[in-house]
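hey so i finally got around to running both of the ones u sent me last week. sorry it took forever, my laptop kept dying halfway thru and i had to restart like 3 times lol. anyway pasting them below in the order u listed, first the sequence line then the structure token line for each. didnt double check formatting much so if smth looks off just lmk and ill redo it

first one:
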Amino acid sequence: MSTIKEIEREATRDLRSVRRAVARDLSFLRREIQEEKRVPIPSDTKKSVYERANGRCESCGRPLKMTGKGAQFHHTKKPSVKSRPSTIQFLCATCHTSYGHEFYTVTKTDPLGTQFKETRIKRKKVGKHKSPYWKEKPKTTKAHK
């Protein structure tokens, strides 16, 4: 015959295991919902963004080739949104990592009352910043003898 304390202990153990299982399921569902389905940028959109940028990073002005290692296309909206030239920026790798994203943390509570932190990304439109590439270069003329 079980005592009341033993029944309470068993019930507490069961409740903990149920909470863990529910938390695990909620975590899985959160990951499923959060995963963004990236829509690839069409090549004609990339080309028009590259031409708009005149082959330079739209932030610092560094000359880049469209297919080069340092060239990146930055989504100013979620990557799941249809890519249009107005929602894409042509950036160098440095500007993309430094200026293109802002991360912030949100504290949420699940249905069981457990709090958890979630990191979110805020996509920013990158503006021009001080760079020697934006300075006008003087035109050199050769003196004819």
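and the second one:
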Amino acid sequence: MKMLYFVIVIILCPQSFAQAQENSFHLIGNQQEGEIYLSWRLDKGYTCAGTDIERGFDTTHFERIGRIFGICGSSDFDQPYSFTDISPIPNSINYYRLVLGNRDYSAIIPVYFVAFNNFGYAVDNTASSTTIYFLKNSIDHLKMMLFDFNGRLLNEFSNIIDNKVEFENNNLHHGFYVFIITDERGNKLQRGKIFID
């Protein structure tokens, strides 16, 4: 009786290792009032000498905005870390990554930072669309009404569950518009004006 043996050879290339490491950092970020809070976790067994926190305005150009000195990680348990970016780029996507021990890079994460005005909202206009960001403290579905400056209702957006409303502005003329955001019961939560260029 003849026996056949199969040998499977797995070759790990450095790029595959770097990709596996990239996914073990668990980097997440979110806006908390006027700052962006970053947190990550190094899996048990991963250690390095120091961590740099980098921010970019795109996914190619980064600058160091923070550093954690000393040995990072642990051979015995998962190790959590956090960092607060106190001066993110306003009304823009901020891109973050970690450089661990000058050798490993985390995945790049985007975090959109909204710089609210004194009235509690922010507006992002492009040539074809407008996004209004507002503070939302309830789980209610909201409604937004858009008026021209003469008080004529132009559009109504219902069942808003996020903290923003996006709409096409191609059919709107150059000038000021007023919006009112209400809860499901009709209580006014936010009122403001926007300018369409």
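quick thing i noticed on the 2nd:
The helical segments are 14-22.
anyway thats it, ttyl
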